[in-house]
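Thread title: Can someone regenerate the structure for this chain?

I was given the following input by a collaborator and told the matching structure tokens would be attached. They weren't. Posting the sequence so someone can regenerate them.
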Amino acid sequence: MRRAELIDRIWERDPTVWTGGDEAKWLGWLDEPRRMRERVEELGTFADEVADEGLDAVVLLGMGGSSLAPEVLRRTFRCESLHVLDTTHPQAIRSLEESIDLEHTLFVSASKSGSTLETRSHTDYFWERVRKRGGCFVAITDPGSELERLAGEREFRRSFAGEPTIGGRYSALSPFGIVPAALMGIGRTAATRSASPTRRAASVSGRSS
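Best answer:
Regenerated them for you:
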């Protein structure tokens, strides 16, 4: 099979490129840069509001695919204001807590399924530590999840819906990656704009192979 043909079939959402199983249900990542570009101003405004309120530290509570992109972005852009908590080790949690001012910290609970035990445990712990103030929390989760329900019940500042057709480890350009990026002050259009020419570039490359 020619490379260009393979690329075209991926963009046509042909599941037989893989196993022919349920892959067709998990190809939302192909369209996510376009969807996120439509939300650039919304996310920028949200990040500005957080900064204006003096919340100068952000703690991402997440595991696996929910924490990978934020951690890469944090290291790449050397952002000291964002912390990623992806462990339940007591010393790691204590060290993080000692390094931040709880009164000026925004906690981002990120779980695609909304039922990740570690993330729920982190959320409940810091919920108590900030005296149950919903304005200190944001949720990123798929629609209809337990975390979405919890965010509504506890009146979190915001709840950002993930795209159900994207697997966790393909979610870097979805709210799981872009919301933390906005909070880090990374260029409002940089991430999604740089991803947008992917199809055209891949097709050109494939036809020249």
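The beta strands are 57-61, 82-85, 105-110, 137-141, 158-161.
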